[in-house]
């Protein structure tokens, strides 16, 4: 199950107040620009239609993933009463129950018109998803035609067909460290620009700020994404990590593509002997992984001692944390939380990947795939009407804004041409919140929060530029895990046992890797490696 949209557990809660999707290591935006002003409604919705109710299924909990959304839904119904004449019956299911329930919906033929398909490939194989290809690049649906380029749709086909609609905005949410810049100044230190800078800063905090936690752990794998560089690894090294459930915390098999890009040069698992890594680019093979784990060990003294037993222990105490993982999309929400409790706090952001630090074009690895998807069951009797609803959402910025931010003037207000803010006097904790990764995100329709530090705003702009991205050698490849799904399930259980120790820096690195590798072998990792090699070689052989 590839749930790129779920925010992973974060004890330090240094993420945005609003929920955002997990940053995907690689994707590329469609090469088009945001529409300016209103556009005419689509041909499909120009005349008043018979009334219809669309049954929509999202996942989430109130005040966790969404909040105060009904007025915006009613506003949509009001605005389109004389054209689409569509009512929305939106049902939210807690994430813990969604996986099981959405399988039941599909097998029982429940009346569902639009939903989030967590079992995307399986549903497509089983024939339960409608093929939506005819609705794209179709002048009858100008909103969809404008927002979803042929390349974007093609990159996100499943088994050669458009069984789901790709939903993503920037195909990258720059990852980095948020830190207390006021403390940095207090110690007479320069802005953080390296891991050594970060280490020295955390050391100062540990020595002088006895009531503070130097680094807020990211769940039980405290140093999530730190000490890695996925873009350089894929584009320069041609090394690709694979995991069983779409969770980068659980990468355990790595594939090296040959320099000519025509075959697999090597496949290795965590803990494999050096001989298994012999054909890997040295910079991005075994040395790369050992550096990640050894650095976690080095930085371990800066995280809470009870990280493994109490990964959520710092929730609600953001003002006591001197630094932590955050995405640039989550920076403002995290900064606002801290400043609400400490108005004198000043926050800085350091991107952890080299290409993001330099903001060079063509250095962000992409496979062309979206972060998230929405789909329509093949059993739905209202496919045309559902697609007309989606066409309306993507027809222009104003329509998209309604679902993304709520009612203009009440829930949000525009700033300049592409920014937004919460109106003065409105409590963000009670204001409209909607998980855009389930419906509204698109490369052509973007706003950024107003009031960002100048440098953070530049980072936002960088990740919205199409020329930031470059397709890697495995773009278009999807690993079909069905032949080894049992082995994957067992190996993921092994990851749950050992990775928290390795990525939080607890215990002996070599000892943990040795035990992990023995358990991976017993769980069938060699079969996974062989199947992965077979599938990648077949893909590269047919690639033009």
Topology:
Layout: E1 52-59, H1 70-79, E2 86-93, H2 95-108, E3 114-115, H3 120-126, H4 142-147, H5 150-155, E4 165-167, E5 175-180, H6 181-186, H7 195-208, H8 230-235, E6 239-242, E7 253-257, E8 264-269, H9 286-299, E9 323-327, H10 328-341, E10 347-351, H11 354-358, E11 364-366, E12 372-374, H12 383-393, H13 397-405, E13 413-415, E14 419-421, E15 448-449, H14 454-463, E16 469-471, H15 485-504, H16 509-522, H17 525-542
Would you give an account of this structure?
- The protein has 544 residues and is of the alpha/beta class.
- 34% of the residues lie in helices and 13% in strands.
- Strands 2-1-3 form a 3-stranded parallel beta sheet. A 3-stranded antiparallel beta sheet has the order 9-5-10. Strands 6-7-8 form a 3-stranded antiparallel beta sheet.
How do the strands of the widest beta sheet line up side by side?
2-1-3
Write down the overall geometry. globular
**Rg for CA atoms:** 23 Å
Portion of residues within helices:
25-40%
Q: Which band does the percent of strand residues land in?
A: 5-15%
Number of helices: 17
- What's the rounded overall pLDDT mean? 89
Instruction: List low-confidence stretches.
Output: 1-43
Overall number of strands: 16
Distance between the termini: 29 Å
Describe the sheet with the most strands: 3 strands, parallel
Main structural class: alpha/beta
Task: Kindly summarize this structure in a few lines.
This protein is of the alpha/beta class. 34% of the residues lie in helices and 13% in strands.
